Amino acid sequence: MTHFSSAQFEPNYDEAKVPVFPIPDLLTTFSGEIIKNSEDWNTERRPELLNFFEENVYGKVPGTLDNASFEVVERNENALNGKAHRKQIEVTLQKGSRSLQFNILLYLPKHKDKAPLFLGYNFFGNHTITTDLNVLVSKAWTMNNEKLGITANHATEASRGVRAHRWAIDKILDKGFGLAVIYYGEVDPDKNDFSDGLHTLFYSKGQKQPKANEWGSIAAWAFGLSRALDFLEKEKQVDASKVIAFGHSRLGKAALWAAATDERFAGVISNNSGCGGAALSKRKFGETVGRINTSFPHWFCDNFEKYNENEEALPIDQHQLLALIAPRPLYVASAEEDQWADPKGEFLSAHYTFPVYGLFGKEGITSQRMPEVNQPIQNTVAYHIRTGIHDVTDYDWEQYLIWAKKFIE
């Protein structure tokens, strides 16, 4: 295997230097057959694309769990100043003698019997998304961030509420939606070390890391979202047919893969997910396949490394990942100053899904012209680019809620 250093991958931010490349055709199979209707898509094209992404990008899940159990460890029917029901649920995943636990923080609007819901991960612990003093502080390994009060890889009370600006909880509840969040490091710590986290449950004797076609961390995080959905299907106050996978940045990649592999998700929101998420890889703009595989070698399966500095050899591109969501609603969002994530590549990827959504009678984005900043396109396939940086803002959530009220609720 060729080894690269991140210094080799200087990002390109010049549209004039974007290579000319063919867009892999969504409606032509690898063997050259033309897909003419939604049935052909579901039985022929979708399975082969899903299999390619599994084998060569995100990696396959190498087995099945023996058991998944759920225990409500805390609840309050009058949370957030009387606005919400709150539950905290410990999820235990078992495989043989091994087990792993993670916690779901669930807020539901009080005025609704069965609520649609956004489900997503956070980066530093459930307690960081709210100032609610009753939310448990995670005991799992946490990435250090001195600005957020996290040192020695351990979250403390000092970091409570430090990421509340990314989660418009009041707006979400006011619109009749629930919110479920999970600290992603409890499912799989975000470090290049496969000695802990979800992967270890599935190792055979003596195995220390996944095989070349087996899952990296993105697929593990996606798996965790599906197990959370297993619980939500049992929760009487949740409309489990209307659960939207949500994610920002690397967790936007995980949300997309979760919705691609688990069709129970009613829709998906990709916020600034970039390379390996919504952005077209073949543009080689901003973060590239080689750079992401070098900086974060644990995110994808090892087979993906053969496309380092070799995107032209990919027989697929990320618009085909997005098309795996069809006919379910899909929202891709970018930020004007987030060139690393390639906003134009994210938009074009969403655009190129329109032939597949058309097979189902759904409205995609037919124009190749990007919308102006802060001028959303709100179809079954939606897109906006807003002012600002790589982040999640109230503006983003306002657009997501408008769209979700129309296409999910």
Automatic annotation (TrEMBL):
Record flagged with keyword Hydrolase: yes
UniProt domain 4-O-methyl-glucuronoyl methylesterase-like: residue ranges: 212-359
Listed GO MF terms: carboxylic ester hydrolase activity
Taxonomy, superkingdom: Bacteria
Stored Pfam families: GCE_fung
Record's keyword terms, sorted: Hydrolase, Serine esterase, Signal
InterPro entries xrefs: AB_hydrolase_fold (IPR029058), GCE-like_dom (IPR054579)
Entry protein name: Acetylxylan esterase
